[in-house]
């Protein structure tokens, strides 16, 4: 078990502590060797990520077959999968080719909502599980379990391996603008120091023209090597700096942008203002598959040892749904999981011979059809990215869907669709959690609905806004 997973339940206490207490505790934690902080799995995945970049097609195939069989066997111990596989006459022990995975049924987010506890491998106890939610950014909040001591160290190792393509070294100073709550007041402080990682955390909720100089001042004072930001936050800060004639007095090594769609035009603008290359990647809370830009190309490549990526049939615009199967999470494997995310393939959906255009043998993507940047508008003119509102705790548990509605600046209604186990008394915790992120220049109301508004394709929408751009 890693120290980080052991201490994870105390994270909110740490974040709520006064800065001197956080600095003292954080420095003590950072002094602990990485092998203890992240556990022995961390070093294993560091090696795996580094070595897999040069694997041959045959080596990738052998690894994926073993990992798929391991995930299917672990899944087959859970009641949900056991029944499903038996009804179709499927025996994971007989898997001899990755192509046979197509015989297994697809898994949906609704399956996770309806059958989550039956999808847990009973061989593992509660202490081996770490509960996480997707946060509801698709309009459908989904909870699931990661494997303690494995899932999060693996994610850390792979993210660091990706970032190294833009010059990141473990231990580098980083400034973060990714939804950290520095103050619930519209005029509150914009930053705090996270000594556990030597990161300066800047608010993504207070990026306004009049406060942009404060951000530049804090960055110039801290002088990070890397800026780790939501694409929407990076673009907003870049435009505020350009409009206000503001400049950094140092040149960062890289701009690390994940969790949102990033267009080529936005990437070019961010790189021009900051004078550093952007690194963009695709992943999700479920930690099923992961893809990142190459060292030379801006195309995204799916890591073959992180998870098994499949792709649905292309739609009329050429986008395919990402379908993934978990590696290394035996507590709750996700088998052929429909992510609801769509990508446009550049080099094909399968492994292929290396060409002059491709940096890796892996499935290659030239575009991700993520959500456009969506914002709530406060009474004082702050624009709050919906990505930053994501809730990764249990407050949306037992809800089938959630949706924000806004027709007037500073006034927001959260519409929610209750599930059969929902208790109305839990509205208070939702209100408290959202109000902390939105701030004191929002009026928030909650309303239960039979069904939230959907797109023509039947997908839930995270935001309905009638405020003009």
Tell me about this structure.
The model has no long low-confidence stretch (mean pLDDT 89). This protein is an alpha/beta fold and 469 residues long. The strands form 4 sheets. It has a 12-stranded mixed beta sheet, with helices on both faces. The chain has a 4-stranded mixed beta sheet with strand order 19-18-17-20, covered by helices on one side. A two-stranded antiparallel ribbon has the order 1-2. A hairpin with a 2-residue loop joins strand 17 and strand 18 (411-418). Helix 11 packs across helix 12 (264-274). It folds into 2 domains: 1-374, Rossmann fold (3-Layer(aba) Sandwich), CATH 3.40.50.12780; 375-465, ANL, C-terminal domain (GMP Synthetase, Chain A, domain 3), CATH 3.30.300.30. It contains 14 helices and 20 strands.
CATH class assignment of the largest domain: Alpha Beta
What would you call the shape?
Answer: globular
Q: How much helix is in the residues? A: 25-40%
Strand residue percentage = 15-25%
Helical run tally: 14
**Strands, total number:** 20
Strand order of the largest sheet: 4-5-3-6-7-8-9-10-14-13-12-11
The CATH architecture of the largest domain would be 3-Layer(aba) Sandwich
Largest sheet: number of strands, sense, barrel closure: 12 strands, mixed
CATH superfamily descriptor of the largest domain: ANL, N-terminal domain
* Alpha-carbon Rg, integer: 22 Å
């Amino acid at each position: 078990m890693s120290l980080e997973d052991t201490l994870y339940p105390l994270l909110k206490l740490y974040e709520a502590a006064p800065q001197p207490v956080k600095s003292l505790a954080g420095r003590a934690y950072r002094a602990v060797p990485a092998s203890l902080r992240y556990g022995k799995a961390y070093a294993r995945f560091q090696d795996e990520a580094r070595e897999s970049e040069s694997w041959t097609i045959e080596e990738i195939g052998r690894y994926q077959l073993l990992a798929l069989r391991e995930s299917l066997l672990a899944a087959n111990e859970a009641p949900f999968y056991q029944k499903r596989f038996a009804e179709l006459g499927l025996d994971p022990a007989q898997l001899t080719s990755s192509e046979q995975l197509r015989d297994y049924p697809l898994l949906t987010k609704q399956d996770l909502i309806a059958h989550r506890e039956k999808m847990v491998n009973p061989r593992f106890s509660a202490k081996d599980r770490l509960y996480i939610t997707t946060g509801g950014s698709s309009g459908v909040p989904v909870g699931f379990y990661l494997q303690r001591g494995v899932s999060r160290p693996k994610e850390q190792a792979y993210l660091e391996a990706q970032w190294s393509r833009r010059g990141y070294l473990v231990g580098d100073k980083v400034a973060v603008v990714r939804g950290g709550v520095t103050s619930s007041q519209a005029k509150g402080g914009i930053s705090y120091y996270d000594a556990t990682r030597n990161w300066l955390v800047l608010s993504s909720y207070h990026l306004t023209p009049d406060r942009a100089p404060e951000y530049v001042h804090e960055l110039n004072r801290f002088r990070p090597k890397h800026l780790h930001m939501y694409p929407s936050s990076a673009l907003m800060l870049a435009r505020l700096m350009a409009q206000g004639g503001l400049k950094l007095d140092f040149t960062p090594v890289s701009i690390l942008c994940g969790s949102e769609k990033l267009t080529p035009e936005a990437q070019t603008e961010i790189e021009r203002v900051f004078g550093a290359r952007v690194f963009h990647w695709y992943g999700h809370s479920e930690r099923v598959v992961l893809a990142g830009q190459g060292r030379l190309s801006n195309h995204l490549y799916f890591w073959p040892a992180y998870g098994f990526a499949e792709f649905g049939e292309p739609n009329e615009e050429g986008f395919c749904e990402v379908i993934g199967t978990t590696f290394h999470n035996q507590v709750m494997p996700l088998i052929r999981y429909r992510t609801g995310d769509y990508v446009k393939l550049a080099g094909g959906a399968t492994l292929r011979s290396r060409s002059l255009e491709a940096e890796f043998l892996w499935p290659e993507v030239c575009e991700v059809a993520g959500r456009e940047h969506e914002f709530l508008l406060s009474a004082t003119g702050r624009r709050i990215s919906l990505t930053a509102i994501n809730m990764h705790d249990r407050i949306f548990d037992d809800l089938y869907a959630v949706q924000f509605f806004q027709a007037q600046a500073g006034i927001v209604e959260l519409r929610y669709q209750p599930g059969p186990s929902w208790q109305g008394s839990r509205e208070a915790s939702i209100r408290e959690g959202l109000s902390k992120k939105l701030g004191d220049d929002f009026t928030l109301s909650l309303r239960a609905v039979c069904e939230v508004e959907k797109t023509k394709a039947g997908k839930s929408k995270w935001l309905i806004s009638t405020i003009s751009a």
